[in-house]
């Protein structure tokens, strides 16, 4: 694999991925404190103090080198507005595996921003970093994320029933994944690929 890998802005047709910054605090707080946004996430709606802590941590995460390294860039629309975040976590160097995830601001839902942003990261994951497998873990009740995984060409690999005690109830976990060879042959892939700016 081509490690270490240092994050740099990734540009698609309508979205840009870049590192979070202080100016993202208010929209990030709006998103992470919204009960509907947090419904299928691992955490409850966050306080301003917790979001400030998370922002400081994630804004400084810009390198993938060893297991558990992650990047969590902002998704920005055509006008540079914050519309959500991506999550990319290096799970194993030996197995060349990473986890991908996403959260959208309520104002940006249904516009295809997360799908385009995920494609940018998957192109980098397979074409540049040299990963073998990328997977997503999600609550199977999250229909929008399930649909997005399928649009990306990911396979439904597993459904763990009552897998964790979360938010005062037993929750299932779904696993979707895609291999490098599947990504290269996927019809859902953008024909032009990403434009990467150093």
From TrEMBL:
Domain N-acetyltransferase: start-end pairs: 15-182
Which chain regions cross the lipid bilayer?
none
Signal peptide positions (record): none
**Gene3D superfamilies (alphabetical):** 3.40.630.30
GO CC terms of this entry: cytoplasm
Q: Which Pfam families match?
A: Acetyltransf_3 (PF13302)
- Report keywords, A-Z: Transferase
GO terms, molecular function? protein N-terminal-serine acetyltransferase activity; protein-N-terminal-alanine acetyltransferase activity
PANTHER family under this entry? RIBOSOMAL-PROTEIN-SERINE ACETYLTRANSFERASE
Name of this protein? Protein N-acetyltransferase, RimJ/RimL family
> Which organism does this record belong to?
Microbacterium pygmaeum
């Amino acid at each position: 694999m081509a490690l270490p890998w240092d994050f740099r802005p990734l540009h698609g047709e309508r979205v840009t991925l870049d590192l979070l910054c202080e100016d993202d605090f208010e929209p990030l707080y709006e998103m992470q404190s919204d009960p509907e946004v947090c419904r299928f996430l691992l955490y409850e709606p966050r306080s301003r103090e917790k979001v400030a802590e998370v922002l400081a941590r994630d804004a400084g995460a810009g390198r993938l080198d060893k297991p558990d390294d992650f990047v969590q860039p902002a998704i920005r629309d055509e006008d540079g507005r914050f519309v959500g975040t991506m999550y990319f976590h290096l799970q194993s160097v030996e197995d060349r595996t990473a986890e991908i995830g996403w959260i959208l601001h309520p104002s940006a839902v249904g516009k295809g921003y997360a799908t385009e942003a995920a494609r940018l990261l998957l192109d980098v994951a397979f074409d540049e970093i040299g990963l073998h497998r990328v997977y997503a873990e999600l609550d199977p009740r999250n229909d929008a994320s399930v649909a997005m995984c399928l649009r990306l060409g990911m396979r439904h690999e597993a459904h763990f029933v009552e897998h964790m005690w979360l938010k005062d109830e037993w929750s299932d976990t779904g696993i979707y994944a895609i291999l490098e060879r599947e990504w290269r042959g996927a019809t859902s892939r953008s024909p032009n690929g990403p434009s990467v700016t150093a």
